Amino acid sequence: MAIKDKLSGNEAIAVAMRQIDPDVVAAFPITPSTEVPQYFSQFVANGQVHTEFVAVESEHSAMSACIGAEAAGARTMTATSSQGLALMWEMLYIAASMRLPIVMAVINRALSGPINIHNDHSDSMGARDSGWIQLYCENNQEAYDNLIQAIRIAEHKDVQLPVMVCYDGFITSHAVENIELLEDEKVKEFVGEYKPQYSLLDKDHPISMGPLDMPAYYFEHKRAQAEAMKNAKRVILEVAQEFEKLTGRKYGYFEEYKMEDAEVGIVIMNSTAGTAKFVVNELRKQGIKAGLIKLRVFRPFPFEELGKALSHLKAVAIMDKADSFSTAGGPLFTEVRSAMFDYARDTKAVSYIYGLGGRDVRPDEIMKVYQDLLEIARTGQVKSTFNYLGVRE
Amino acid sequence: MTKERKMNIREDMSWRDMPQGGHIIDAGNAEDFKTGDWRSMRPVWLQDKCKQCLLCWPVCPDMAIPVEEGKRKDFDFDHCKGCGICVEVCPFKAIDFVEEE
Questions:
Q1: Inter-axis angle of helices A140-155 and A9-20, nearest 10
Q2: What is the pLDDT of residue B1?
Q3: Mean pLDDT score of chain A, rounded to an integer?
Q4: Do the chains contact at B21 and A98, CB–CB below 8 Å?
Q5: Which value does ipTM take for this structure?
Q6: Which of A236, A246, A105, A104 is nearest to A189 (CA)?
Q7: In chain A, what residues touch B22 (CB-CB under 8 Å)?
Q8: Least CA distance to A158: which residue of chain B?
Q9: Cys staple from A357: which of A33, A56, A116, A323, with CB 3.0 to 4.6 Å?
């Protein structure tokens, strides 16, 4: 029987970490992810886990310690936000390139400056090319579920890549919601025992990790890393199917909400998807064929699947909670639209950048996006491709 | 005696055959890699001036001065990276230092 509880997103993540019982957690507190290592260090102090908790002096050190621990063959986890993730930046690439299956909760928060502790996706979007798998979560339940699945995805022998599980700072991290937890034994059984392929502590099989890679070899190693990301696409679905058998909760690359007969839709990530679903329901009551796609897997990017899922729409809005300052739309927009070029050429696409620095996103604003889409669907004309939503003009 | 090797990484290998993450899953494989091509300066052994004092041999960081039966031979240019320490240490000016062509 699943355990019903009410937890904040950060508590849910800490509980999942307790149930996973990793060998090493190295973390530095930063708002709004602070609670994750805070709760977890209590589990360590209470003897509820066997984890070696490394209290470091910065996030750069946190990720460095994680890399060392994972290379030694320890199942390793951490959590961070915003500037903390930015400070990990160079180590993120090393973790991924050394093929170390570290799992990290990223509690999305705006990047400075100006200093802002509230939610947007500029931190994890900044790390999108670091070679980490990225899963995004609408609510506390998904954060909990994705973290458990992340272990299996990361450690799969065909993947061996680190995974970040991203959810919205304060909105998801601090809001308490009803949640269904798995029993400790079931989580333990699901994640299994970690048997690393290589370990620096295996004295019978000495190994060097992270050596100099001259031009004759570096490219081949990057190609192999790209292949692992490709393999992750298959593994993510396999793990999701197994997780569904255990919990009844279904996961894919993305969730399609009322998309079968939809004529207009939006593509969105994380907690705003909940608000947008409310708007879709309102529109459906008026007989308007609105739909929504909530992207769960941003890395690897489900290029073909997402492109095809949008092909029957007349118009779609791709909503970014981060600006890339490219003047060509947010990071999600450019990739979704690129997929649409191959698979949904007849669907008009527009970009909306919204909610930066924790700006509230209200149903009436999402409603405005759908109204713009309906206008595009009716006229076949796009007046403005690149838009900002909820900013004072 | 040469230890049995688990893996030889070569420049004609596909990315599919390489160990992941650039791991070196074997010890003692430095002999596979020629590091001498970094060199911009090249030591020249002047055999007639050399008194075989062997002061150059212990200072070479790349073990690029082979010694056989107590006598040094010409440089191992596959591994000499042209640091010039041997030139500095030679009391008999028996090593010239010229630009690599």
A1: 30
A2: 41
A3: 97
A4: yes
A5: 0.85
A6: A246
A7: 97-98, 209-211, 213, 217, 221
A8: B20
A9: A116
Bridge-partner residues for A299, per DSSP? A134
Q: Can you read off the two tokens belonging to residue B65?
A: 């001065």
Mean pLDDT of A327-353: 98
Q: Which of B:21-40 have CB within 8 Å of A?
A: 21-27
Q: How far, in Å, CA of A193 to CA of A386, rounded?
A: 48
Chain A positions touching chain B (beta carbons under 8 Å): 97-100, 160, 197-198, 205-211, 213, 216-217, 219-221, 223-225, 227-228
User: Which residue, among A127, A120, A107, has the nearest Cα to A38 in the 3D structure?
Assistant: A107
Burial class (CB in 10 A: 0-12, 13-18, 19+), B88: exposed
Q: What is the pTM of this model?
A: 0.90
HEC profile for A177-230? EEEEECCHHHHHHHHCCCCCCCCCCCCCCCCECCCCCCHHHHHHHHHHHHHHHH
Which residues have CB under 8 Å from A128's CB, separation 6+? A134, A298, A299, A331
Q: Is the dihedral of CA B43, B45, B49, B51 positive or negative?
A: positive
Q: What is the 3-state secondary structure (H, E, C) of A24-91?
A: EEEECCCCCCCHHHHHHHHHHHCCCCCCEEEECCCHHHHHHHHHHHHHCCCCEEEEECHHHHHHCHHH
What are the tens digits of pLDDT across the range A207-241? Answer: 999 988 889 999 999 999 999 999 999 999 999 99
Residue labelled with tokens 């010409």: B74
Interface A-B: count of C-beta contacts within 8 A: 53
Structure tokens belonging to residue B94: 């028996």
Question: B2: pLDDT confidence band, cut at 50, 70 and 90?
Answer: low
Amino acid at A74: A
Rounded to whole angstroms, how far apart are CA atoms B42 and B84? 8
